Amino acid sequence: ASDRKLSPYFNEPNGVRSISVSPAKKLVAWATGHRKIKVWDITSPKPVEFPQATDCPSLALAPNGSALA
What we know:
Layout: E1 16-22, E2 27-32, E3 36-41, E4 48-51
Antiparallel strand pairs: 1-2, 2-3, 3-4
C-alpha cells in the first residue's frame, strides 16, 4: 500500500519476456527486453547476466537447476 520497493528489486525497463524457477537450487531466471537472460541465485545479492544475440521469447530451467534452455 505504501508503494515502497522491497529488496531485492531489479528494474527491467523493457519488461520481462519469460521467467523460470528451480526451487531445488533456489534459482530464478528471466529473459529481459534488452536481449539478456538473467539468472539469480536467491542467496546472492545480484543476478548473473548472459547477453543474447536476439530476443528470447521463452526459457526453461531444469528442475534440478543443472541446465538452462
